[in-house]
Amino acid sequence: MQRQEVLEESRYKNPVNSIILLSDGQDTYTAFSQNNRSSVSNYDCLLPPSILHPVGRAIPIHTFGFGSDHDSLAMHRIAEASGGTFSFIEDTSSIQNAFAQCIGGLLSVVAQETHVTLESANRRVKIRGIKSGSYGSRVENGGLNSSIDVGDLYADEQRSFLLFVNVPRSGIEGPTKLIKVNVTYKDAATGSVVELGEQEVSIQRPETVTEYQICIEVERETVRVQAMEDMVVARAAAEQGEMTEAGRILVQR
Prior knowledge:
alpha+beta, Rossmann fold, Immunoglobulin-like, 28% helix, globular
């Protein structure tokens, strides 16, 4: 029986399933890059199509890099491409705790196939973009509709996303309707689909603004996203051997 069939059949007994990968060595698979005529690691080719482009729910790969000799870049890319996590294990004494934390997290999954839909509550309000990290998101219909594919959620877990909207000028004092939000998910215990119901988000529009106040929660998330984006750019520069440029990007942020 092939690996994918084993995973698919196991869902009849337990819908929450994953792959755990432990490695202490270097990736020996390389592919030729026509762009820079150099041999570079092609990490997508390491994963079967059923993992990269699943027909049903994606199966995450949780990778563990053991010791100082493991290929952290390969392990991180495999986890990222499959929606899993990457952990570093320094020595053998840490293996048991690392695996226990991972399995404990899988056992606490309460929601699957979580999907967030957002709709403009005012046709003049346009959704400009979403910062959702590795979670898939879309903005459609000229900015009137958008959605986020969140996937699995653990007990007491919270996910934050930044939504950028263009709000029109208003000469009328009072609330302005912005966004309608709805969330659907599959209950991991019962397998039934749950819809939380549509909620509307509005803001107050005073005639004059006397004091400009920053929302600390939004500001914190904005800074976090900007830092993560710079880390991705810096890592790409470091992979090309441009260590000075990578350092400059991080120092500037």
